[in-house]
């Protein structure tokens, strides 16, 4: 009886210690985060931007000479071809062709200065005035049939799923849940075998 009580106390103590360690590690190795972008997130632009930049809180890492940054520019679920480069704290994305009017989302996955992958995204509407759009019939087609493009939303999805999976908060919550489960099973086991 007394042994069981002491064991429970030890397990609870270990759980608290683990949680404390989790918190410390999280604070010491904070991932880089998005500090700004051009266009700004949510800001509408009146013409196709020559480039789109996303700036992070610390210098981004490049693995073995290759550009480790993964970029996905999309509009109404369609992936837009781009050329991307990473320098210092900034990812620069140049669309291969002019952007027509529409709501664009740029999702990037970068290697944080602490070596961990970090994902973020910005969205911005491109709102080219009608007179300018008249010379670009492609933009009118794209704007007129946004619903027709909906089934192609999927290709962009994996990048966003990765982002949700890597959120450190999710991992910490998962860790706490698993820990709680283990403790519950142990306590039950000890009760059954007393
Ligand atoms: Cu990290």
Could you please describe the fold and organization of this structure?
With 194 residues, the chain is α+β, with helices and mostly antiparallel strands. The protein has 2 domains: 1-30 and 164-194, no CATH class; 33-163, Immunoglobulin-like (Sandwich). It contains 5 helices and 8 strands. The chain has helices at residues 2-28, 130-133, 137-144, 157-166, 168-192, and strands at 34-38, 52-56, 70-75, 78-80, 82-87, 90-95, 102-111, 117-126. The strands form 2 sheets. The protein has a 4-stranded antiparallel sheet with strand order 1-2-6-5, with no helix packed on it. It has a 4-stranded antiparallel sheet with strand order 4-3-7-8. Strand 7 and strand 8 (117-126) form a beta hairpin. Helix 1 runs antiparallel to helix 5 (168-192). The model is unreliable at 24-28, 139-146 and 152-165 (pLDDT under 50). Bound molecules: copper (II) ion (CU). Copper (II) ion binds at residues 29, 31, 112, 114, 116. Copper (II) ion binds next to loops.
What is the level-2 CATH architecture name of the largest domain? Sandwich
Estimate percent helicity: 25-40%
**Structural class of the secondary elements?**
alpha+beta
Count the strands?
8
Q: Which ligands appear in the coordinates?
A: copper (II) ion
- Contiguous low-pLDDT stretches (5 residues minimum) are 24-28, 139-146, 152-165
N-to-C terminal Cα separation, in Å? Answer: 7 Å
Write down the CATH topology of the largest domain. Immunoglobulin-like
The main β sheet shows up as: 4 strands, antiparallel
């Amino acid at each position: 009886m007394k042994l069981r009580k002491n064991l429970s106390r030890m397990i609870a103590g270990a759980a608290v210690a683990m949680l404390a360690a989790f918190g410390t590690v999280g604070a010491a190795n904070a991932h880089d985060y998005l500090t700004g972008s051009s266009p700004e997130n949510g800001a509408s632009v009146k013409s196709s931007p020559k480039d789109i930049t996303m700036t992070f809180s610390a210098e981004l890492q490049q693995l073995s000479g290759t550009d480790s940054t993964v970029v996905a520019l999309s509009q109404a679920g369609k992936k837009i071809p781009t050329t991307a480069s990473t320098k210092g704290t900034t990812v620069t994305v140049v669309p291969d062709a002019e952007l027509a009017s529409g709501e664009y989302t740029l999702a990037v996955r970068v290697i944080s200065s602490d070596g961990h992958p970090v994902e973020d995204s910005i969205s911005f509407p491109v709102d080219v005035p009608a007179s300018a759009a008249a010379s670009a019939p492609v933009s009118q087609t794209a704007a007129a049939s946004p619903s027709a493009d909906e089934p192609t939303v999927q290709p962009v999805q994996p990048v966003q799923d990765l982002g949700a999976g890597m959120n450190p908060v999710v991992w910490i919550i998962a860790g706490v849940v698993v820990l709680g489960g283990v403790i519950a099973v142990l306590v039950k086991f000890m009760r059954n075998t007393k």
